[in-house]
Structure prediction request, 779 residues.
Amino acid sequence: MLVRSAKMLARLVVLMAIASRPALGGEIDVDDLLALPLEEVLNLRITPRKVEESVQNSSLSVTAIGPHQLDLFQLDDIQDLGPHIPGLVLGLSGYDQRPSMRGARSRQINHNDVSTPIYIDGIYRPRHAQASLPFFDLAQIEVLRGPQGTLYGRNSFGGAINVFSHPAEKISEVKTSIRMGSYQRQRYTLIVNQALSETVQVRASLLSDQHTPYVENNYNSSAGYKDKDSLYGRAKLAWQLNSKLDFELQVSQWNEASNGNGAYGYRLIGTPLNPSTGLSNGSFPVAPRIGTDTSCSGTCGRFGAGADDAATPVPEDVFTVSNNLVPRQEITEQAFLLKSQYQTGDLQVRLLLGQVEFDDRRRADSDFSPYESFEEGYRLISSSQSAELQIILKSWNGLSLVIGSYLFQEDLDYTFIFKNLYPQVDNRADTNQTPLNEYPSWLDTNRVETSSQAYFTHIKQALTEKLHLILGARHTEDSRRWSARGINPNDLTKLDFDIPLFDGRSKTFSNFSYKGGLDITISPNLLFYGFYSTGFLAGNTNLRFSAPTSYDSQKAKSIELGSKFLSSRRNLRLNLSLYENQFEDLLATGIDDLDGVAFTVEKNAGSIKAQGLEVELDYHLTPRLSLGFRGEWARTTYQDFIVGNGFEEGGETINGQDNLLRLDGLQVAFSPSRTATILATGHFDAPWGGKLSPAVLLYLSSEYRVTDEDYLFAKQAAYHTTEVNGRWTSLNHRFSISVFVKNLGNAEVLNYGNRFGGNVAGTGYQDPQTWGVELSAKY
Prediction:
């Protein structure tokens, strides 16, 4: 399959090169140039350091994607970003995005913070599921590889993802599009931009996106997974009060009301069994059924919480389940942004105020079966406010200076929900008895209040005409306060949490991040840089089943050497980055001693070392044909790392504690040693008039795991995926038709794996092959 995809890519490149030949001597307008990735990225102005600069002049490891490429490759959400960003691998747990870069994997401890956060128009989104927000009417996306502790502070452990929506412009324009495709896809967009005067502009954007489930349910056809029913709207008002002062007000709302992707993974695959002992063991293949199995004597996998009925069906197709319960995913986000900017000469003062209200509710079939056993889900409500002040001195005697302060507050309410539907007889729901419809007595609801304040500075000082000293520092103080309330044991049929468990627990975490390095401009088209930098993932509380414990900040430090090259003819760009990241105080299983007795606890006890080389290459083979390469070679390993074993055997005894897994020397989860993306993009005259823009993407990845634990069922083999895109645009650029196929060949790619209750294994997969046709118009 890989050979066939490579041959197809080569043939398409040859055809595009032949098609582009007649245009070699002709005029090429601005729109033609911007349709190719290289020219578009060279014209982007990025702001990762709070100061506008070009990608090639920025001494940071950053990838920027502009609106033409976002549209051409149909980048609809963060899951589509991976092949375009060197080293970015995306996991998914339910609706929670789990981005991983440079060894910073996302480990979820109930409701902890995101290790590679997403910012929407400069406003931080603290919850994992908020990264699932649709990409729509965007100006550009900037992905900074990390850590980025001085520029973005708390939780920029693996880097940061900046998403910028399209600004309101001084034009009057209406854009609309309709997309139809596989799985009954229906996507409608409407964008209205209006200049009310010379100084006031408004822009309104509306998106409706629906499709049927990618994962079929062969027991209940209305209970499939991975469908979509999204409605997203954004409105902007821009006001230039005078030549020095301007304001922007933005409001947005996102609603998702679908079956969702499951509470965590969506597919239960069986119990990994050691046939010689009859005990569950993650190092062995899964048994085809859950529970008692003829492949071993005695009872297999009959230990632990949850149901493990031997008759539970496990469909072979990874995009098919057999469940009775109709799942539910409901998300509502309301966001408000006020941005003001004052500029006089080289002095700029910027203020960003944001408020985000986020409500995430999920329900899924907890026993993953046709039986009326259990249901589970959760309810998460986040209310966050942020304020950032930036004072920017662009240039003064060779000095560029940024100083600022940042305030962030969040009130988070989190409730894990589990419900017993019927009494259990021999681990199977007995529907002949009276329904229980009861919640277990151990359920609780948790509240965490976060208050964070930071002060930061970033300095770039010219030492000579070509050599610059770059320094950065940031001090952050996070205060957490948490409490928990238990369910009323006298009435387990209601989710009434009126039993105080504890209140007023609090802890303050103080962190200082810094950065230092040099960059040198060898020529106008060649830049070298080198840095040492640090970052952290904020300390938090682990409110798991009423345990009022906390953990300290997890630390990152990094050495990076990079270069950026652009040929004199602007037809070749090569960016390289060589890094070594050291992560310490990671959450792992630690050993504590109490009165001479050792016991295990989740604590700051692990470390990871990541080394790698990242490559970005763009080359104009002809003025209308561009080739691209994105790749990473990495070695990312656990160093001092112990975790508990979820299965009955397979672990070892460490410091007197049985059945633990030592991960030292193993590859880190979601960290393949090699990834490569090959792109070919063209833009040339169509024989019947207008312009054609074909694009092909081939993504290759070596093997990796999707869990920290070295479980056999959680290993993704080496794979490749192919995307084919094409767009025709009329000569006046008012009409276009796009076609696309994603995951051509229907590769089965793991993005989730874990041990569930009852010693059973659960998994989730990236989207199957999809296709679509989109009609767009502009007036």
